[in-house]
Amino acid sequence: MRDTISPAYASLCAEIQRFHARQMQLLDSGDAEAWAATFTEDGLFAPPSLPEPVRGRAALAAGVRAAHAELAAEGEVRRHLLTTAAVADPGPDGSVRVRSYVQVVATRRDEAPRLLLMCVCDDVLVVEDGEWRVRERYVSRDDRA
Amino acid sequence: MRDTISPAYASLCAEIQRFHARQMQLLDSGDAEAWAATFTEDGLFAPPSLPEPVRGRAALAAGVRAAHAELAAEGEVRRHLLTTAAVADPGPDGSVRVRSYVQVVATRRDEAPRLLLMCVCDDVLVVEDGEWRVRERYVSRDDRA
Amino acid sequence: MRDTISPAYASLCAEIQRFHARQMQLLDSGDAEAWAATFTEDGLFAPPSLPEPVRGRAALAAGVRAAHAELAAEGEVRRHLLTTAAVADPGPDGSVRVRSYVQVVATRRDEAPRLLLMCVCDDVLVVEDGEWRVRERYVSRDDRA
Asked: Where in the numbering of this chain does the SnoaL-like domain appear (chains A, B, C) (predicted)?
């Protein structure tokens, strides 16, 4: 179905695009606390690199802080490019599901960028205190499909 | 010109982004029939890999089914990342032209993803039975430019 | 904050997406004058490849014309894929800041595409004569970070 033709859906998509873009840019700049704050307090992040999901902002921030310090020591910059995002209509509780493709690009000084990972990202987003936040994020890697 | 500043253009873009994202995700998951249903009944698809365009849902679905079976046998996942989409204003008949860039990324188990193809995609989209569909799609590959 | 929930922000984003997509497509097709016209008359472009910013349409067009002629002689096609765009709310003077990620993909005949550069693009956009234009653009390369 052509589910939505209202301006409301366009506003939703525009907001979520900004949310996702900012969130990825915070992650890539290593701003661990600001990135963790884009999740709900007990937000769940199930990345492909860990056997168990991470839950809660403190754990989320700690993970990014450690990963970013390691990359900085190696002189590597990472970018998370989120594209091809399918934003669903909001559910009865106002949450919004989004499936998107995320390329992870890694670059070292004076070297060509490498396409490190090709991922699929499934989000459940909610509005909390007037802000979009991730309640649940499940990421899969194509090389482990 | 700043052609359009109305909410209608924003709604159009949001709908078309969802259409494209879902369509690429259906293709990559190998859901041949659902993908073919995103074209009009006599929809035309002119891919760079074939000497003649494919026309009609049955032929479209058959092509994707065969290609996906081959990739599955080889253990390869493909993703079509559609970005940089220029959505034109609707024409007099309501059809909408969109030019976008499509990266095709191929990944095998335990291997790094490869940027397989860089393509330009020219679509003519129409609304049929309340749904966006592709009436014509022309794809060119940069390595055969 | 969930800064904006009005249809106005969605319209702004849709227009800017079209502007950016068309601008990148003009650049990649080598249409130097049309590309330069997407900057204000005295628009500033600070690319990572030059020691000093380029200012003004004549200089902008000359740079693209020379670069495109060189690539054409080498049989190379380049694509600028702009994604993950964070569009800020307009400032008091109506200008809009956008931070986005740009992949530069280079392809030669019968060869696989290469991810040539991973860049961050910071724009200041304004409306002039009813059209969006770049007043300032700062681009950084991850391999020179």
From this structure: 14-137
Query: Model ipTM?
Result: 0.94
The total of other beta-carbon atoms located within 10 Å of residue B57's CB is 19
Pairing of strands A76-87, A96-108: antiparallel
- In three-state secondary structure terms, A22 is helix
How is chain B split into domains, by residue range?
7-144
Torsion of CA C24, B98, A11, A6, to 10 degrees: 170
- Interface B-C, measured as beta-carbon pairs within 8 A, has a size of 92
Which of B79, B80, B116, B127 is best to mutate for the A interface (most A CBs within 10 A)? B79
Q: Which residue of C has its CA nearest to B116?
A: C112
pLDDT averaged per 10 residues, chain C (length 145): 68 97 98 98 92 96 97 97 98 97 98 98 96 98 92
Query: How many C-beta atoms lie closer than 10 Å to residue C125's C-beta?
Result: 26
* Whether the Cβ atoms of residue C81 and residue B102 lie closer than 8 Å to each other: no
Q: What's the CATH class of domain B7-144? A: alpha beta
**Separation of alpha carbons C135 and B84, rounded Å:** 21
Q: Quickly tell me which residue has 């569909």 as its tokens.
A: B133
Q: Does A8 touch chain B (CB under 8 A)?
A: no
Dist. CA A74–CA C135, nearest whole Å: 36
Cβ distance B11 to A14 less than 8 Å, yes or no, reads no
